[in-house]
Amino acid sequence: MLARPLAPIKLARCYPEHLFDKLRAAAARAGAVPAGAPIPSRTVLDGAPRPAEAVIDGRAVLMLGSNNYLGLSTHPEVVEAAAAALRRYGTGTTGSRVANGTLDLHTALEHQFASYFGMPQAHVFTTGYQANLAVLTALCGADDVLLLDADCHASLVDAARLSRAELVWFRHSDPANLRAKLSRLPGGPTNRLVVVEGVYSIRGDVAPLRDIVNVCREFGAYVLVDEAHAFGVFGERGLGVAEAQGVLDEIAVVVGTFSKALGAVGGFCVSDHAELAALPAVARPYMFTASGTPATMAGVSAALAVLARDRSLVERFWARVRQFRAGLAAIGYAIGEVESPIIPIFCGSENDTYALWRGLLESGVYVNIVLPPGCPADRCLLRASVSASHTEADIERGLDVFRMLVANPARAARS
Ligand SMILES: Cc1ncc(COP(=O)(O)O)c(C=O)c1O
């Protein structure tokens, strides 16, 4: 029998209505999109039959905007491992890692990460965001100084604020500016931790880690690198940009996420510093949240095993990156200079960027759109990416649409 619908709840209006004003302003902004037109932040995927494809509004579209770089989310071994864990342990752990939420799957995955990096310490987290919150709050407090690259991901910024350390910004990927900032800090025993990313998440540029490490060595500063977008695809073993640039042994802590090349949800950190073993006892973002699901732990473990033995996925991924980049540049799009998993397509104004994004979507191609506050108002961009699961023909099909929209700007601009 169907339950009778509940009568709408009447709220008592005993307060001045200002609390929700910010949300009204945000809703008005989203409402600026013409009626019936797609709203970037509200795209709903009804399915993802393969990493190269998604279903949006019942229509198959070519997925050129996912972080599933190696296509591992649907790899048969990964799916089978996740399904087996789901059957054996159920859907969730229903508890924190420090209470009833640690399964043998969590500790096994931590050992797997430690051994893959050849470092003694590894922890896994429920999300990559929480990995950054947990590591920075465990390491830093009010007496420490955190030096952050100006383009650091929001999770690192939030983590720095939560740590209550003094926060110093340095110019994006500018070792000379980092040196200037470090040299202005008072001497003495204060800890200085420099925070950078291997691959920056909006424009996809690669950090000059070797130069940054050299500057940090001069000042006795520690380095933390977030390899979210680099893990799996940079370095001989896929350990990230620090491995690719030969400086892994000079990094105090590496953090990363399962939500890009590993095709899942969660985060990790690894370190040579034995003291990191105590992180679970001090990091609130580790303690006060439920642990990652059994299916996720088992799936990521299988994904890591595939990554360790099958380099062909990484080779295929980079071949598609090169094909797509070359095609976009030949058509005349302004793309990022660096060969990277993230391909930024610079479009200028908000209107032009939205028109191209919408034109692509309506023509069956999905990419991500970056608008203010994610970028300055006159430097909006589309953010594209490919996967090892794309075929050459998939990429050509996508390029045909980009070509058509350049040839018919009116189509892209229809709104
Ligand atoms: C550089 C960086 N760090 C951390 C994160 C957070 O990871 P997650 O989405 O897995 O929580 C992201 C996510 O986009 C990222 O790009």
Tell me the major beta sheet: 7 strands, mixed
Small molecules in complex: pyridoxal-5'-phosphate
Spatial sequence of strands, sheet with the most strands: 4-10-9-8-7-5-6
Which blocks of ≥5 consecutive residues have pLDDT under 50? Answer: 410-415
Radius of gyration, in angstroms, nearest whole number: 23 Å
Distance between the termini: 46 Å
Shape: globular
Q: Residue-averaged pLDDT, rounded?
A: 93
Structural class: alpha/beta
Helical content (DSSP H or I, runs of 4+)? 25-40%
The tally of helices reads 15
Amount of beta strand: 15-25%
Strand element count: 15
Spell out the helices and strands N to C.
HEEEHHEHEHEHEHEHEEHHHHEEHEEEHH
Q: How would you characterize this protein structure?
A:
Helices cover 39% and strands 17% of the residues. The protein is α/β, with parallel strands linked by helices and 415 residues long. A seven-stranded mixed β-sheet has the order 4-10-9-8-7-5-6, with helices on both faces. Helix 2 runs antiparallel to helix 11, helix 3 runs parallel beside helix 11 (294-309) and helix 12 runs parallel beside helix 14. The radius of gyration is 23 Å and the shape is globular. The protein binds pyridoxal-5'-phosphate (PLP).
What is this structure, in a nutshell?
This protein has helices at 21-30, 76-89, 104-117, 128-139, 154-163, 175-184, 209-219, 241-244, 279-282, 284-287, 294-309, 312-331, 350-362, 392-407, 409-413, and strands at residues 45-50, 53-56, 59-63, 121-125, 145-149, 166-170, 192-197, 222-226, 253-257, 267-271, 334-335, 343-348, 365-366, 368-370, 380-384. The chain is an alpha/beta fold and 415 residues long.
